[in-house]
Amino acid sequence: MEVKTICCIGAGYVGGPTMAVIAEKCPHIKVTVVDLNEKRIAAWNDENLDNIPVYEPGLAAVVGAARGRNLFFSTEVDKAIDEADMIFISVNTPTKTYGVGKGMAADLKYIELCARQIARVAKTDKIVVEKSTLPVRTASAIKDILDHTGNGVNFQILSNPEFLAEGTAVADLHNPDRVLIGGDTTPEGQKAIQALADIYANWVSKDRILTTNVWSSELSKLTANAFLAQRVSSINAMSELCEKTGADVNEVAKAIGMDSRIGPKFLKSSVGFGGSCFQKDILNLVYIAKSYGLNEVADYWEQVIIMNDHQKRRFAKNIISTLYNTVSGKKITFLGWAFKKDTNDTRESAAIYVADDLLSEQAHIAVYDPKVEEEQVYADLNYLETRSEQENKSGVAVHTNPYEACKDSHAIAVLTEWDEFKTYDWQKIYDSMLKPAFVFDGRNLLDKNQLEKIGFVYQSIGS
Ligand code: NAD
Ligand code: UDX
User: Which residue numbers delimit the UDP-glucose/GDP-mannose dehydrogenase C-terminal domain (predicted)?
Assistant: First the structure.
């Protein structure tokens, strides 16, 4: 079967870039990305490509080349479902905030709504592709809904998890380590797998397109994120030991990373991992393990989250204790709010939690991030419900100029590893600050020797 029309439900950080690249690489396929969020769709359609809702290096050019040709963004969900041969579900699957599994399980209500909508609208056979990250065995629930409430049409369900990382989404999509497609072992299932593999084969070499059964594919996504996050928590655990012993975590990371069995990537010690995926997916994994009575398995993975929470908290604690045990009324400047560089995404960013701890100690926080909007900073803090919106507003100032943000502050905390921070005139910043002028580098980004020569008291992670 040759796919001519694709619909993707969910125009977020995954749906938008993924479909833009499919449209770019497959001009013969019409790709429509739909979302209920009208503002988001309007932004994807904005004439000025600087205003598309997801910031990713290279994305504006890809969208610009395909949009209006074979890439469309729309709020007409039913119409796009009806027209499509293949439907990707790329909606959010956040941690549940209510009921059974609250704080742990993935909330699948948006997935179920999509399945019911597809069942209601579809009049011709469809391949439904799970692009969202889902608990293992979700495909069987989707199939149940489609088969029992549909119009008698045939559905094939595939799992095709997305492995892109934000900040490098376009490069990851152009050149993926692998594409994973899980499907039924029946002949119809294999045909559906082939139809999706044929799409990727337009730009991905065949040896990188891996096919498995549905359950392996679903579980591989949770496993990959758990392993990646575990590496960060492992090196962060060592960072605290380095600080006590005179070892330097960068040197330790280099030394172990040269062992080809360990490898050098993902060993950067930091103020803690953030992002919309790692915590959510590990909590989900922990919940699934518990639901099968596998308590040791659950505890093992939960430790990755416990370590990460500790790393964020101890960063804030260290700022307070170094500033003579009080930050009350002191101005502390945050360089960076996004959860990593080259993205405007702030979900679960360590900066939010560090700010929350410092605000509880009555610090005044000045934030500068090259890509994060002021309203997002307040929304992130308000979401925690630690204090009133008014209190967050009066405790935090968001700046558009980094030098203004740093002026008259007691300390600077680097929360995101934006490259531009390295290029600042640090002498000028030092001159404008209160003395002693402190830098707490949560990303081990800046040049310690240079800063100390200027006169800063510089503290990094893990040395
Ligand atoms: P997102 O919140 O940025 O986007 C999801 C979009 O789906 C939202 O715009 C929302 O309005 C829309 N939506 C929800 N229900 C809908 C419905 N019924 N009909 C139409 N639109 C609907 O989320 P995201 O970051 O793109 O993540 C999507 C999925 O991909 C999640 O399962 C996530 O775990 C997974 N994932 C994310 C990343 C990442 O880097 N962000 C990477 C790999 C996998
Ligand atoms: C992650 C996975 O990498 C990706 O494959 C999956 O599809 C989605 O989740 P993402 O969260 O976008 O991607 O970014 P990632 O590069 O994995 O970084 C996650 C967090 O870990 C960031 O806060 C980052 O700063 C932190 N990190 C990463 C470290 O602190 N040290 C490292 O060595 C690597």
Answer: 333-448
